[in-house]
Design brief:
Elements: H1 16-21, H2 33-40, H3 44-61, E1 65-66, E2 75-76, E3 80-88, H4 89-113, H5 118-121, H6 127-131, E4 153-162, E5 165-172, H7 179-192, H8 194-199, H9 208-218, H10 221-226, E6 232-235, H11 244-254, E7 257-259, E8 264-267, E9 270-273, E10 280-281, E11 284-287, H12 310-315, E12 320-322, H13 333-336, H14 339-347, E13 354-355, E14 359-360, H15 364-372, E15 377-381, E16 391-392, H16 398-410, E17 415-419, E18 425-430, E19 433-442, E20 444-447, E21 452-454, E22 459-462, E23 478-485
Parallel strand pairs: 3-23, 5-13, 6-7, 6-11, 11-12
Antiparallel strand pairs: 1-2, 4-5, 4-20, 8-9, 9-10, 14-17, 15-16, 15-17, 18-19, 19-22, 20-21, 22-23
Length: 487
């Protein structure tokens, strides 16, 4: 397995952990000085106790994640690391500006490709890449969602490779998950290490539910017409969904009803919720259900999860769906590769946040390069997620490389490739002590009728396996609390 030298966010060097514990002190970046003092003053047995306490908290809460296709681990805890990840306020301010710019461009792109298609006529990207994309929903052509917002909740995955080097790895504009872990991680840390919060001025994330509810209410079609208080619900596929815990958690935090498709019905193009006091009109549906299952009269006729007639009510402008139907086209990793051009086209600005260099395997020249350098690259399915179906070339045996090469030759349009980045590492509590582990960051960006908002921080995902670059929970990754602190 090839070793990757990574920037460490506490020490600046990937090998400083052994030196720091072996006598020779290592320089600590300014944001982590209080963390280093805390670690120095916490004996191994105390850290072990805190780790057990954290696990006990999560078990009591019932925060689990279902792993599809793993009969031996249908429900499991996502590993939680008690050492927080630190971002300086100045670093966060730059990220926030870049995230807002990017999400505004994403919303403008979605409005355009389902409307006038100016970006296609301008030749910025191939027409077939959008119009023949599996995520492009023909039912939304010519439609405008209430409030003009397409992706109300976006999860933008960021990676870091150096002191001032942040890149967007993926855009999640359809049904991004993980915000419940961001909130629960903070609650657990407040219980476990209150002394650290006394020493460090940590920006709060607890306002996220209030911000999300305000965002949803701002795009209610009925409020704009009558001033009525909007009725919002969260639509879940049910308790067998891998993210059901998050659905129930968020509905509770928002103070709205958690519903399944059978709890809703449509009459005269208006959506109603069944209640013990009779039908109640619904204005906004925060849906955690994929497009194909949302309305059996329009999409998958076998779906028992959706609401018959929902798309008719949506088309009539009587209900808001967050996120809008059809946003999956912006999740596509081939579309992602055009995001710098998309930002320039719709904002007239240079992108604040860069993309990871990407080869589109659908292009013959790029495919040739990827095949020649497969052992050096990361290859992903354009519509993949959760870490499934990807190849990490430097870690793959020869037989796997050969099998992936055959896939690429057969269906090059289904893949993109990227360099194997040296993702930054953070101090992480392990059975053997504090060690470096690779991380990424998913901030959650909220877009309402009038503004774009972000709570400071996000969900830090951590690869718990030494040397691993895969942080996804479905692949054994864990999470950390993310602290934005004053410089």
């Amino acid at each position: 397995m090839a070793q990757i030298t990574a920037f460490d966010e506490m020490y600046g060097l990937g090998d400083a952990y052994g030196r720091a514990s072996g006598g020779e002190p290592a320089a600590v970046t300014s944001g982590y000085r209080a963390i280093q003092n805390w670690l120095d003053q916490s004996p191994p047995e105390l850290m072990a106790t805190r780790r057990r306490q954290a696990e006990l908290f999560f078990r009591r809460i019932g925060i689990t994640f279902a792993v599809y296709g793993d009969p031996d681990a249908a429900e499991r805890l996502i590993p939680f690391d008690i050492v927080p990840r630190i971002l300086a306020r100045s670093e966060w301010d730059g990220l926030e500006a870049g995230l807002k710019q990017r999400v505004r461009a994403l919303n403008a792109f979605l409005a355009d490709v389902y409307g006038p298609r100016d970006i296609l006529r301008a030749g910025i990207m191939p027409e077939e890449l959008v119009l023949q994309n599996p995520g492009y929903n023909l039912h939304m052509v010519g439609k405008k969602p209430p409030g003009g917002v397409w992706t109300h909740i976006a999860g933008i995955d960021l990676v870091r490779t150096g002191p001032d080097q942040f890149y967007v790895l993926e855009d999640n504009a359809r049904t991004p998950s993980g915000v419940s872990y961001m909130l629960e991680n903070r609650e657990v840390m407040l219980k476990l290490v209150p002394e650290l919060f006394d020493q460090m001025k940590v920006a709060p994330v607890e306002t996220y539910p209030e911000m999300l509810l305000e965002t949803l209410a701002s795009v209610s079609p009925r409020r704009s017409r009558s001033g009525s208080a909007p009725v919002c619900v969260l639509l879940t596929p049910g308790r067998h969904n891998s993210a059901f815990y998050e659905h129930s958690f968020l509905a509770d935090k928002l103070g709205i009803e958690l519903v399944e498709g059978s709890d809703l019905f449509v009459r005269d193009d208006i959506v109603y919720m069944r209640t013990t006091e009779g039908p109640e009109r619904v204005d906004v549906i925060y849906r955690r259900l994929d497009d194909d299952f949302i309305d059996p009269l329009v999409f998958n006729p076998a779906s028992m999860l959706g609401v018959p007639g929902l798309m008719s009510a949506y088309g009539a402008g009587n209900v808001t769906l967050a996120n809008a139907v059809g946003t999956g086209v912006a999740d596509d990793k081939a579309i992602y590769s055009y995001m710098p051009d998309i930002v320039r086209f719709y904002t007239g600005e240079e992108p604040i946040l860069g993309n990871v260099p990407t080869w589109r395997c659908r292009e013959p020249e790029a495919l040739g390069y990827v095949l020649d350098h497969l052992a050096e690259l990361v290859v992903k399915e354009v519509d993949g997620s959760g870490g499934y179906g990807m190849l990490i070339g430097p870690h793959a045996p020869q037989a796997t490389l050969a099998a992936f090469a055959a896939k690429l030759k057969a269906h090059p349009e289904k893949f993109i490739a990227q360099p194997t980045l040296a993702l930054s590492t953070c101090p992480t509590a392990t059975d053997a002590g504090i060690a470096a582990r690779h991380v990424d960051l998913r901030p959650f960006v909220l877009t309402g009728a009038n503004d774009v908002k972000i709570v400071p921080g996000g969900l830090t995902r951590v690869a718990m396996t030494p040397g691993s670059l895969v942080v996804n929970s479905s692949q054994g990754g864990g999470t950390k609390d993310t602290w934005v602190v004053d410089d």
